[in-house]
């Protein structure tokens, strides 16, 4: 089978609606050693699978993170959460990446700050498997529901909790791009009626796990930020909102008094 050239691949991607057809074509061509493999990966992309899942990796803040089917694709905007966490992390410290998905946020944080005892946790077995692959021996990955996944002896000793938990309101999932709607699990997206069900639970329990002066860093949207911050403040933490216009990203930081 003759390998299609760059122009052919770009044309097929563009016809399928790709906005970054040239960049995607270059990545797909570089990743496929044979024409048959290119046909397979190009076919999946043209059918609507996210590029990152087709390639099997994504770059977050300069760190290459392996991905597998039905695991949430880390978003570029989560770089703000990583940067803010890196600013606040004081090593040595226990750090928890709640709702860790592929483990991307913890991996990117460890690339910036050494000496952290990282625990990551997720309820989804595929995410836990993927996070173990990405974090290897640098972290302990637990499976379970939010803080209940963690060893009890960490209660009151955590210096930093970071979480990109689901925050899409249920009724808005149907309007998300098909790449997310059709290829990412509902448990990774659905934040309940107002999108804040998981934030509510994390905020309510964070105080029991944080050490005095410890921080909670929660990704949210600009639209939901005031409500996420109010939940964090209602749980007794000092709350502030951090925004990055370039990344179009918003996080809420809560600090234990
Ligand atoms: C938006 S994804 C983010 C994944 C990862 N933090 C990232 O930014 O790439 C949310 C993750 O939360 C997990 N999750 C949802 N509800 C959870 C719960 N109750 N306990 C633990 N993990 C949960 C999902 O399985 C999913 O991996």
Low-confidence stretches: none
Overall morphology: globular
Order of helices and strands: HHHHEEHEHEHEEHHHEHEE
Query: What is the rounded distance between the termini?
Result: 65 Å
How would you describe this protein?
The chain is an alpha/beta fold and 257 residues long. The chain folds into 2 domains: 6-66, no CATH class; 76-255, Rossmann fold (3-Layer(aba) Sandwich), CATH 3.40.50. 39% of the residues lie in helices and 22% in strands. It is built from 11 helices and 9 strands. α1 (6-15) packs across α2 and α5 (79-88) crosses α6. The longest helix has 13 residues, at 197-209. The model has no long low-confidence stretch (mean pLDDT 97). Bound molecules: S-adenosylmethionine. The site of S-adenosylmethionine has 21 residues, from α6 and α9. Keywords: Methyltransferase, Transferase. This is Release factor glutamine methyltransferase. InterPro entries: MeTrfrase_put, N5-glutamine_MTase, SAM-dependent_MTases_sf, Small_mtfrase_dom. Pfam families: MTS.
